[in-house]
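Purpose: get a first structural picture of the assembly so the mutagenesis plan has something to point at.
Setup: two entries, given in the order below. No constraints added.
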Amino acid sequence: MPNQVQQAVKGFLLFLFRFDGELNRRYFWLHFVLAQCLILVAVIPSSGREGGELTVWSSMLLILGTLAMISAWVRRLRDIGWTLFTLVLMLVPYLNLLLWLVIGLTRGGAQTNPFGFLSRISAHTYVGLGMLVLMLAKLGSDMAPTVGKNLPSGNIGADLASPQTTKLLKPSVSEGQLELLEFARHELESNYYQHGPIYYKTTGSLAEAQVFFARRVKHPKLVMAIPRTEQEIRKIYGSDLSPREVALIQEQMQQLDRQMQTAPLQADTTSGPLSIATLNRQLENEAVDTLILVGHSNDKGVLLPSGEMVNLPYLINKAMRHRKQVLVLSCNSQKLVGEGNSGLVSVDRLEFEAILAGLHQAEIMRCRNQPCSTSMGEYLAELDKGIATAVQAARGKKTVVIATLSGSVMVTGVYLINEERE
Amino acid sequence: MKIFGHQLDYAAKVFDAHRRPVDCGADDTELKQRLTLAQGYSRVVMQILVSLIILAGCFAILWLSDDQSLQKGSFGLMGTVIGYWLR
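Result (structure tokens, whole complex):
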């Protein structure tokens, strides 16, 4: 089976049966129709029988249909922010009908791409699939034992492999954009499609972010600007902190240190607290390709335990001069990149904002403060557009900057990738 | 306007802030808020413990005693505790 069709079928099955993620109203009703079709396929053949007994195939389909229904409920409840215990109320007659309507019509924060790989296929394809299943249900009423054989992959695969659909599945990118698009897509796929939405990774670790990034660079060097002593904490987080507040932050930093002990990259902690001078030495070190800087930041730059602050433009210029890639993992990264500093990178402000729009959506997917307002497909399109225009603008210049997210316990990551281009 | 769930929300925020006083994306104001919330950790833990003890006591009374007035009082106490957490 061609890879795309395989992915398409996988995406379809995930859409029907996965329990993680969320479902917006539109796809909930679509899902509902498909699940009902499955149940109809199961029930109709036996309705003509004496005693209405279910065959083995029908029973299996009935179970699958029920599972699909529960899957839709779970994801929809999550989407509108209700507790999953509401499912218990579905056992109450009449009340369940009311709930069904309320949940089906309540606006949620749906940011999900329920189809995974199939995000580029229009909903009409799914309606077509639903009709197909209905037709199978009708056929199944005459030929009960063969229903199960007719239902799953063959017809669905054929439909998805049609020339029109295949065209939709392939993004149209030029040679120059391909590499960056692949990067962004790979990240989305590894973060979203394989492991669910990014916000599910709140229990992930900094080590994961490192592994993720370290796969893409040759000789990374980790530099920690994390405060450890009370003095360093006061320098970074403010001098007006009470001793109890300092202790709380210190506890969290120790937790981060413990995480770091299991990380593949180890920071050099022997040279004392990080200062601009030591950071410069790391940037000038020829044995290092990529510098990963972990620390707290405000809207102007990264704060170092020495009490100094590294401005982002300074960091970028320095990195460019020494041909280094720099990854900044910091708090307040959106402000750091977005306000005042974006004009100083080689992409202009408008284009950078297009990328930031992607970043913003990714941030929304992490479900921090704001409700989600656009679909995953729209987000992807926006990201593609942003990257494409950025690449176009950066042609002939030396640097392309891509901002994106990592999923870690306490650090929002911004990857600043200085990539040379002819 | 939210009517129910304030107490549970507050408890969840306190636990979260205690685990991560410094949150990603938090500005100085939010850092202060989280630090203040984190300091309520012991209080919330004690609230939970006391609630659990009261509920356990009420269940014990309902289970062991046949005294109607005692049972009525237990139900009332349970309602109060549950109501406190659902408010």
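The longest helix of chain A spans residues 56-80.
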